């Protein structure tokens, strides 16, 4: 069946989110699990927002070919082209494993750190892919449908953005809706949508991963120039290199000493600041 990007766009504009139920097949899910296995267990959450009983694997895009392919999936790109300017960027890429006993995240929106008054168009668009099925009991993402259109006045005092210790607002909690979807499904939502990772009241961990994308003029959450080794970035597809920031947003945002940033990935590239210098002046 052909992918209906129009239907997903309509759902996103109406509700703030849309679900692709068959995003990954069984083979892709196996590849994701195998690709994640060496990295899980290396980073436990450091606060209530990350989750003290939650494992996270950051810079996921550079952890294996399967993650590269998913990051530039044509269906996601088609949706993003309806909401973001050409040259949009990957702003965050991480796996999230919520273990039993984890408490719910503070309610937040993913682009609240951009200090631009609401209501406004989303500056970012998020995706969360279920590696394990999402249920109301195992910490599946909880959302407030329609909250992407709320104004600053509507949400004033309701939540504290990314405050790790923010107290849950009962009025907002009553409006949360659990995202129930099978393994392999993907929920896409606007960066202005209020949501949270749910509490895991089940007996098993819930594994997922999230890629988030932002406008080409916005600062990204992850610094991929430092996080992804240049040699690795050089081997990636042109689309993925652009998503990592190896592009120019007109007229010249992102240049490297007046040159295109892709030139820095060439084997013979010499940094212009260092060129011709015999020693570091200190």
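-> sequence recovered:
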């Amino acid at each position: 069946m052909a992918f209906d990007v129009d239907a997903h766009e309509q759902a996103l504009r109406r509700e703030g989110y849309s679900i692709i139920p068959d995003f990954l097949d069984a083979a892709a899910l196996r590849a994701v699990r195998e690709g994640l296995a060496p990295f899980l267990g290396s980073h436990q959450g450091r606060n209530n927002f990350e989750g003290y009983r939650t494992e996270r694997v950051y810079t996921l895009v550079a952890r294996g070919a399967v993650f590269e392919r998913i990051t530039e999936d044509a269906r996601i790109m088609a949706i993003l082209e309806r909401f973001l300017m050409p040259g949009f960027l990957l702003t965050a890429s991480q796996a999230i494993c919520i273990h039993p006993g984890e408490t719910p995240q503070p309610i937040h929106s993913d682009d609240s750190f951009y200090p631009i008054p609401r209501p406004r168009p989303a500056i970012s668009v998020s995706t969360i892919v279920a590696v394990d099925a999402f249920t109301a009991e195992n910490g599946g993402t909880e959302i407030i449908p329609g909250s992407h259109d709320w104004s600053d006045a509507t949400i004033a005092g309701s939540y504290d953005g990314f405050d790790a210790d923010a107290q849950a607002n009962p009025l907002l909690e009553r409006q949360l809706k659990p995202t129930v979807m099978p393994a392999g499904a993907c929920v896409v939502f606007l960066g202005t949508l209020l949501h949270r990772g749910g509490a895991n009241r089940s007996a098993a961990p819930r594994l997922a991963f999230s890629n988030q994308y932002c406008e080409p003029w916005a600062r990204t959450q992850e610094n991929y120039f430092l996080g992804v080794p240049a040699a690795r970035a050089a081997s990636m597809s042109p689309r993925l290199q652009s998503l990592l920031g190896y592009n120019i947003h007109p007229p010249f945002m992102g240049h490297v000493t007046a040159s295109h940033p892709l030139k820095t990935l060439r084997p013979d590239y010499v940094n212009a600041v260092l060129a011709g210098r015999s020693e570091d002046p200190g």
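Strands lie at 17-20, 54-58, 89-98, 124-130, 142-143, 177-178, 186-190, 195-196, 206-214.
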